[in-house]
Structure formats: structure tokens, C-alpha cells
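Homework help thread (please don't just give me the answer)

Our assignment gives two proteins as sequence + C-alpha cell strings and asks us to describe the second one. The first is just a warm-up. Here they are:
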Amino acid sequence: MENLLSIEHLTKSFTLHNLNKHIPAVEDVNLFLKEGEFIGITGKSGSGKSTVLKCIYRTYLPNAGHLWYNSERYGTIDLAAASERSIIELRKHEIGYVSQFLNVMPRTTARELVQNAIVEMGHPRDYAEVETIKILEHFELDYSLWDSYPATFSGGEKLRLNIARAMVKRPRLLLLDEPTASLDNSSKRKVKLLIEQLMKQGTTMLGIFHDLEFMENLCDREYQIRNGTCTVAEKMK
């Protein structure tokens, strides 16, 4: 089975010009994901875990290294060097990202957010409406909130909506940045069920979780990041 993503010598640092300070984040990170795998990244807060995911999604531009992604749309492409237009297309059609935070367009309801994500993939509106109902019911988002603006939601409600919006697209590669951080146990179980379902459907995932118990019997391989460097941990399954 070939690699869907191969990260080679990834290095990222930040410069605070007003303080004339250089802050290293990650250095010489190497990891790979085969198609259909679920890979976990662990490490203390501030170790650089989220930086790796944001470099893949190109929220951050790496200082050095390559992120080779085997795309359906473009073939093998280096995410570190790809054009902004290519990255936008990959985000629409192939690569999903879930974080603890929900950033959305104002005056867009919860139902519209999920529907628009599905339509963006090229599906018809009637299909999007049916799938939206399924996933909002799965996460038990109160029906009274479906046509409300997420700005009024609690933190847990926003997070459930954020996960629903990303997972309903069934992307080829899904990046999960602490997606269960503020969820109760019932909601965590629902996230785990959807992850298992997406894995069966062929989605490849790279996830950061502080809840190691959540990762048990789920991850194929674990990478640990300490002080910005990455090592392979023992097999988790």
C-alpha cells in the first residue's frame, strides 16, 4: 500500500519581529501515512503537534522540508510548495481539518454550514439536505439550534458542529487537532464511531489527542513529539 502522505525533514519556526526573537517549533520531522491508516501524534502542550497539522493544511508555511501528498486531483504534490489555488482546491475536495475552534462566516446557520460543505464537494442540494440531517442527529445537536447562528452556541455545541461539518465531507485525508478536548464522554463516543466509519470507507486520518484512552484500539501507529522532534512510539493496536 503506497503512502498517502510523506513528511520529510519538516522544519518550522516563528519570528517575533517586535521582540527580535526567533522561536523554533518543530525541526526535522519525518513521518508517513499509508492510505486508510489512522496515525496519532502525542506530546506535551507546546511541543509542536499542532504546528505539524497546520503545515500539512498550509495554515503555516514550512521553513524547510517536503510534504508529499498523493492527490487525486493533482497527482503527487508537495504541500509545502503548492500554489494557494491548489491548496484551496485540496481543502474543498480532499483534505479536511477539525480543530477545537469554529470559525465561520457570519449569518450562516448550523444547517447551512454543513449543507454548504457537502455541496462544495460537488453533491446535489437534496443529497446535502439528507446527509446534514443524519449527521446533526448523530451528534445530538438540538433541533432548535439547526437554523440558528453558531455564535450563540456553547463551546461543546460549536465543537460538535465543527466535527460534523468536516466529517460529513468524507475527505481522503482528515486532520484532527484535539477534536474531543471539550466534549463529554457521550459525544466522544459519537466521534469515535464516526472515525471508525470513515476508516472503513477509506479516509486516512492524522490526529492529536490528549485523551490517550480515546486513541486505544484506534490508531495504527503513534508518533511522539518532544521539544520539536518526532519519534515513532510503539504500535497502539
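The one we have to describe:
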Amino acid sequence: MIELKYFGHSTFLVEIEGKSLLFDPFISPNSLASDINIDKITTDLVLVSHGHEDHVFDVERIVNNNDATLVSNFEIVTWFQKRGIKNVFGMNHGGTKVFDFCSVKYVNAVHSSSLPDGSYGGNPGGYVVSSNQGTFYYAGDTALSYDMKLIGDSFDIDFAILPIGDNFTMGITDALKAAEFVGTDKIIGMHYDTFAPIEINKKEAKSEAVKSGKELILLNIGESISL
């Protein structure tokens, strides 16, 4: 089983065989996640999809607390190296890194990417994580893309973590199509409700998913699920 814990916005802690990955840490500035103590979060890897502040704000603090390895595109890990982070692994689209408990493939995302100081953040991406416990797709911030069909052709995706807040990313309608493309009926929603432009009607989103034969899981902040 894969254990998934939600920390708000696009931040998830995924535990696999006693090891863990943390995606896009944006917790301390998020008023919806005010009950989360980020200094109690333990992780082996921190994976960053792109450079926007609402995906990288807590990277340094969490990486340094855990002596974790930062995984992202070359430009982002280089930027953090200049800020003192030593344990990094840079990737780019199409590349796969095999860690001791999972493999991580960096895949395309359709979005923009700049770092908090305005530096170039490279091209945005998502991740396909494969392990003995299952395979999942973390999309990052993205629009619907036909490239997602390549993921479905190459992997047996058990569940997909997809943005559903619209405005800056896909909304629920396109996210349901994305799930179809990657070949899963199970969606974990992210990137919604944090800011006014991405507030959604959760009841309507779940209803739309049911009509499409999909399951939309919207976790409460701090909630965990086994998949």
C-alpha cells in the first residue's frame, strides 16, 4: 500500500516501504494549513514540479530539517544549491531516476515556471513514481495535454494527483479527461481553494466525476489515505 498525507494546496507526503517523498512544499504561508507543524514532517526526498513560490516556499526548511535530497529540474536544483542545499538531483523531461525504494520519471507539464526572485525556473514538469507498491502520477501545475496519453501507454497508473482549481491549471472537466488519458479512474485533487481564483464547488466537482465514472478524492488538510 501507498500512504498519502495531504498538507494543503499541492503538498503531499507519500510513504512507500518505510521511505517517503514530499511534493511541492507550500505550508507555512497557507492559512488553511495553519495547524500543520512543518518541523515535524520527515521525508527522504523533496520533489518540486516547478519554481513558483506556492510550490517551493518551504523547500529549504524541510530539506535542511531532514537532510533530504531535493529532486527537480536542473534550473531549480541549481538555484537551491546557490542557497546552500547540497543534496540535490537534477532532472529534465523524459529522464528517470531509480532510487532505492522507487523510480521517478520527470514528465511534461503545460504551465510557466519562475523562481521567487524572478530567476528562470526551467520548464515545469510532473512525476510518475513507480514502486513495488504501485504507480502514480503527480501532475504538478498543468493544463490538459495530449502528452498524458503517453503516460497511460507506458505505465499502469493506480491513481493520479491532479490540479482541479481551474484558472491557473486544469479545472475538473479537463482533469477528468487527463485521468482518462493516463488510464486511471482514481483522482486525488490538488491546487484548489487556497486562493480566491481557485476556489471550487467541491460537491459539484465530485458529482461531475461520478458522472464520468471516476472517483474524485478531496482530502482534508492533515488527512491521510492508503491507496
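TA reply:
I won't write it for you, but here's a hint about the kind of observation we're looking for: Residues 193 and 200 are 6 Å apart (CA to CA).
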